[in-house]
Write a structure and sequence with these properties.
heterodimer; A: globular; B: 514 residues; mainly alpha; 20 helices; 75% helix
Chain lengths: 377, 514
């Protein structure tokens, strides 16, 4: 998104806003307060946060985590006798019955298994977000700030990593790590491995951001004041790029969930006896006509998590983009729509970054201002 | 420009070399190619192992083996040698052959899905941009996010269950139940309302008409047993054709341009007459014949537009040839429908036409029509699945791009000088909104040829993605993996370059630095 897109967010900063351009309702507020205010005003995003927190709470408290027991009376590896062919016993919110999501073929409680899968997905999502976000930010910041040979080397490494298929790495991981670690550690290792390869798109975005920010007056000022490079990079430039980073890490996380489920579906992700949402669907797709609930519940949880993360990301983007005059769409409609196009293009870019399965497919973020076409409008 | 391209190509070759080395070593590390033999109880176990070691040259350590492989692969790029040695797969088959076959399957799978996703996605994006913050906009946005959040294998299983098994069951007795008629009618009514604008009364009328037409259509289709012996017939072709003619003229030239309208309208009866005149030769037609007829159709359309003339010949020609193309499509559809009962009762199909796996029915006998119907029924479900997940990026992207363009000064100028809104949207805004999408399309095509791994897996297509996974798991087979990687990586790099070049060609503000 760095290059040919005429919407490179150069107006991302509060400094850009001249006094008379500051809208009435944000005047006198700090940047963080503005972002918070805008985010709270975005109903879908707030609803999504609530939904996501509820799902996460349910997943981690119900069957317990890290040896801490939960309130649910079955574990995801416990067998019990099949009741009523394993049909779900969920009647309503206050009468869950013994097996609200039913039982699988060998009598394990499917609610516990789905909760375990949800835990896995959420852990992997955050590990990928942390690892991928860290690498992407550091590589992008270094290459964007120093330019020269550092940039050339780092960006060629990005080019190489971006075309290496993820599936190969997953297979190698399966062989090397699968034998040595198990349980939560295996999940974290898987997330870390995916994170190590998925940061490339983010690093290009961050680099683009740094390329434009390093030319600005406040960076010169910091130089003259004698600040070190590290200080300028992380204290002066990074906070100004944080909007782009947060938004893209969020979207990275939503695609990470789908990636993990896809890998588990291929048998490369979470390994049995542990379960993930993807492996649950994969194991039970043949049973759709006889035991449809085995298929519905994990799928619905994937969709719910992924959808809420996507809406949160969308809300964050709206909140971080000061060119977005209004965050209340109803009022925005009455007032005119200036600026909203920008956030949408970023959103679409992030969506387009998604790859299916493990095929290496550079997103449209692979434009390259260093040696690619440069925009001279 | 030339310097720039050469520089990019040289970089691409270096990147590909680096990445292929890494991938080769990773594949070698991913598992033991002899694993199945070591575990086997065959009496000639040692001999089999020795055979495979010789076949795959396992005696050489992987870093050295890579350079041997590279030597063979490098012959592929030497012109006029015609020798291409990508090594052998674990079963002894040359990788180049397997790759060719897999690529054919993948292209078959992704073409329709990609084209449809681009067309529908852009159309949705443009419409929602023009109606920003309307209920339609919100609904489409929500649907886009929803489809984007769906795991493709989940959709695939649902499609198999309801789209294939359910529909095939339905075909046994193709009559809609009253409940399904009512529910579908209400849904269609709501869709109509979403697309409409205006007062509440107008919307209610739209809802009523939409629901009534749907219900009537469904009842009529049930009563006539249409699903068993479908067809459009001359009257429906005429009605649809005239509708298409009006729509295309409206979009390309405007209804006020009478010459263009008449040339489009003329194409409808011409197409219909041609259908019945040429009908005898249709039963033995081949793919090339259909392609030739398509070209002739467009030429006839151009000719009609040219002779109708008018102040702007180009517009008439464009409208007429587009209409001709779509009318020909209707005719083709009708001809396929004529053949449907034969396909349906074919011994290999036995009344369950929608397939859930594979790309064709083995040993199916029949003419061109039957074989293509067979392909359609096999491609239907994977195409829908791919379409749904890739719709989101196109619709969001084109919406964003259109919104941005619609705020440009030149759009205000166009409006201020009194151009009709159609011209402003179609001529000034739409064309420019497409420019950023060229990049996206180039990337997508480059990436998709590498194979839609999961989709191919679920629908048992033996394409690139499936070849890749099958050679990686459970026993890694380095040569096919490298073959697929080579093509994927090459395409990714080439399309990356094409995207950048296309952008600078389409948008003169962007220049490449030589």
């Amino acid at each position: 998104m760095t290059t040919p897109n005429p919407t490179t967010p150069s107006g991302q900063l509060p400094e850009d806003l001249e006094a008379d351009a500051v809208p009435e309702e944000v005047r006198g507020l700090s940047q963080n307060a503005i972002v918070r205010k805008r985010f709270i005003g975005n109903t879908p995003a707030v609803v999504s946060i609530v939904v996501f927190v509820l799902i996460a709470l349910m997943a981690f408290t119900s069957i317990g985590f890290l040896g801490i027991p939960g309130w649910w009376h079955y574990g995801y590896e416990d067998f019990s006798t099949q009741i009523n062919g394993g049909h779900p016993t969920f009647m309503n919110l206050f009468n869950w019955g013994d097996h609200p999501f039913g039982q699988d073929r060998i009598g394990r409680d499917y609610f516990a298994m789905t909760m375990r899968g949800t835990q896995q997905s959420i852990i992997i999502m955050f590990v990928i977000g942390a690892v991928g976000g860290f690498l992407g930010v550091v590589v992008g910041a270094l290459s964007g700030y120093f330019r020269g040979w550092i940039e050339a080397v780092l960006m060629r490494i990005v080019d190489i990593i971006i075309i290496i298929p993820l599936l190969i790495l997953a297979a190698v991981l399966g062989r090397i790590a699968g034998a040595h670690v198990s349980g939560n550690m295996a999940t974290i290792t898987l997330g870390a491995f995916i994170g190590v390869i998925i940061w490339t798109g983010l690093s290009r975005l961050v680099r683009g951001e740094f390329l434009s920010l390093r030319e600005r007056e406040f960076v010169d000022a910091a130089h003259i004041a004698g600040a070190s490079n590290t200080r300028i990079m992380f204290k002066h430039i990074l906070p100004n790029a944080v909007g782009v980073i947060i938004v893209n890490v969020t979207l990275l996380m939503s695609s990470a969930i789908l990636l993990e489920t896809a890998l588990s579906f291929l048998g490369l992700g979470v390994r049995p006896p542990d379960v993930s949402l993807g492996s649950l669907i994969s194991d039970n797709q043949e049973a759709f006509s006889t035991r449809p609930w085995l298929f519905w519940f994990p799928g619905l949880f994937i969709v719910a998590i992924c959808l809420s993360i996507n809406f949160i990301g969308d809300g964050l983007r709206d909140a971080f983009d000061p060119r977005q005059k209004k965050f209340n769409s109803k009022k925005a409609k009455d007032r005119g729509i200036h600026g909203s196009a920008v956030k949408d293009s970023a959103s679409a870019a992030a969506i387009a970054e998604r790859t299916e399965g493990g095929s290496a497919q550079p997103g449209p973020g692979s434009g390259d201002p260093g040696d690619g076409p440069s925009h001279r409008a | 420009m030339v310097t720039y391209i050469i520089r990019r190509l040289v970089t691409a070759v270096l990147i590909l070399l680096g990445a292929s080395f890494v991938v080769y070593q990773l594949t070698a590390a991913a598992g033991d190619p002899l694993e199945d033999l070591r575990a086997s109880n065959a009496p000639n176990k040692d001999q089999l192992i020795a055979q495979r070691v010789a076949l795959l040259d396992l005696g050489t350590p992987p870093p050295l083996r890579y350079f041997k492989w590279l030597g063979g692969a490098a012959q592929c790029v030497v012109p006029f040698v015609g020798k291409c040695d990508l090594g052998l797969a674990i079963n002894g088959e040359p990788v180049a052959d397997a790759l060719g076959r897999a690529m054919g399957q993948t292209i078959l799978l992704i073409t329709a899905a990609t084209v449809l996703a681009i067309v529908i996605g852009i159309a949705l994006g443009i419409i929602t941009a023009l109606r920003q913050y309307s209920t339609l906009d919100y609904s489409v946005t929500f649907m886009a996010f929803l489809f984007f959040s769906l795991p493709i294998f989940w959709i695939a299983v649902l499609l198999k269950e309801f789209g294939a098994i359910g529909f095939n069951d339905f075909l046994r007795n193709p009559v809609f139940s009253p409940t399904s008629v009512i529910i579908t009618a209400i849904c269609m009514g709501i869709v109509v309302v979403l697309f409409m604008s205006g007062s509440v009364v107008r919307r209610l009328i739209g809802f009523a008409i939409g629901a009534a037409v749907t219900a009537g259509l469904m009842v009529a289709l049930s009563a006539t047993g249409w699903f068993r012996a479908p067809g459009l017939g001359p009257i429906l072709i005429l009605v649809f054709g005239l509708g298409v003619a009006y729509l295309i003229t409206q979009l390309t030239a405007g209804i006020k341009n009478r010459k263009a309208l008449y040339s489009s309208l003329i194409m409808v009866p011409i197409g219909l007459i041609a259908y019945y005149v040429l009908n005898p030769m249709f039963s033995n037609i081949t793919g090339w014949g259909v392609l030739g007829l398509a070209v002739v159709t467009i030429l006839v359309g151009c000719a009609v537009g040219y002779f109708m003339g008018g102040f702007d010949r180009g517009q008439s020609m464009r409208a007429a040839s587009l209409t001709a193309f779509f009318v020909a499509g209707l005719v083709l559809l009708d001809r396929f429908m004529v053949e449907w009962p034969n396909y349906f009762s074919n011994g290999r199909i036995r009344g369950r036409p929608i397939a859930t796996i594979g790309s064709s029915t083995p040993n199916l006998e029949g003419n061109w029509w039957i074989h293509n119907l067979d392909n359609f029924t096999h491609l239907l479900l994977p195409t829908i699945a791919l379409l749904l997940v890739s719709l989101a990026s196109y619709s969001r992207y084109s919406r964003a791009s259109m919104l941005e363009i619609m705020q440009m000064d030149y759009i205000r100028t166009a409006r201020a000088k009194g151009l009709p809104e159609r011209t402003v949207v179609m001529r000034h805004a739409f064309r420019n909104a497409l420019i950023p999408l060229a990049t996206l399309v180039a990337f997508d095509i480059g990436g998709l040829i590498g194979g839609a791994v999961i989709t191919e897996r679920v629908f048992a297509f033996t394409g690139m993605g499936n070849l890749f996974v099958a050679s990686l798991l459970p026993i890694p087979d380095p040569n096919p993996v490298m073959g697929v990687f080579l093509i994927t990586g090459l395409l990714a790099l080439v399309f990356n370059l094409i995207a950048d070049l296309a952008y600078s060609v389409l948008d003169p503000r962007v220049r490449v630095k030589a």
